Fold:
Amino acid sequence: MSGSQQNPTEAWYRAKREEMVRTQLVARGIHDPSVLRAMQEVPRQRFVPEMIRNEAYDDSPLVIGYHQTISQPFIVAYMLEQLHLNSTERVLEIGLGSGYQAAVLSRIVHEVYALEIIPELAKLASQTLRELGFANVHTDCRNGWEGWREHAPFDAIIVAAAAERLPETLLDQLAEGGRMILPIGDSRTSQVLRFLQKKAGSVIEQTGIAVMFVPLIDPRE
Ligand code: SAH
Structure:
């Protein structure tokens, strides 16, 4: 499928990206124009290890080192579409990883705040984002369970790692009208996506599709 090119050109990657958007996203019901446009623009191959760049547009998650993965393109699109984001909003991402999802987010919203607990990944992702000019992504290396109080409240929060229970602190950092999406469940088996919205002082909850994420590390355990 994708491993056939030795040194792919930018045009080859662009064609692969177009095919990914068409066959993995549009064909499966993703229709938010801002999500489709962002995923059409962000060069996913720049966020994966050089050795596997050819596979950047495969319909699967990919390893990024330190036992972590970059999510399958469809899962990124699905989670972002669920949040109904707009260009004036400020969003917190927990689990920066490679920086790919933060880059996609940065093309949809006003400001992105992204936390990563593994220092090497935080450093590499920040460098990639800087090199590619994603200037509205702010990153820090810290424990996502605690959110990023200095920049709260957020219009939306997206968690890219699985927790067994809802991190209450994150909910506290969500603005009125704010939305949050996260995988909840056992990281050794599978989880479900949980969607929450703060409305008039209460929290509305919905459960979505089954997913498989790496665990949200809890440094206190
Ligand atoms: N969004 C990423 C993929 C995330 S993989 C991308 O687009 O590439 C999940 C990431 O969450 C991993 O990099 C992992 O190190 C990080 N992570 C796990 N527990 C965390 C925590 N408590 N705080 C912040 N980041 C965490």
Q: What stands out?
A: The longest helix spans residues 10-25. The radius of gyration is 16 Å. Residues 68-71, 94-95, 97-98, 100-101, 115-118, 121, 143-145, 160-161, 214, 216-217 surround S-adenosyl-L-homocysteine (CB under 6 Å). Strands lie at 62-65, 68-70, 90-94, 111-116, 137-141, 154-159, 174-185, 191-199, 202-211.
